[in-house]
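Morning, I've got a small favour to ask if you have a moment. I owe you a coffee for this, so here goes:
>
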Amino acid sequence: MGNMLMLGFEGFMGLLKIVLMALAAFGLFDAAFRREDAFRAAGKQNKIFWLVILGIALVVSYLFSILSILPVAGAVASIVYLVDVRPAVKALTGGSRGGWGRGKGRGGSSSDGPYGPYNG
């Protein structure tokens, strides 16, 4: 019975490790494609800062046991990026990333319909 309990605990910890790595990887990927000026305009440090922090979070979540402090700190950094920094930066860029359009994603104005400008 004790052996089964340990296997279940190890499985849970392995799953938790994968979740923490996924959070950090998503944050890192997202930050890499956001515009640098949006980070400063939102007052959320700068892009390089978040790339370094999220990169470290990804590495420590991979290398260290979940029971140590480093992956926990990495998880906190990833969560702060996802719930605070990302929405602020996304709001300033209209949801667009890097150079992939502005605002609506196609560079159109707010009066554009699905087939071009609306002149009604």
Notes: The radius of gyration is 20 Å. The chain has a mean pLDDT of 81.
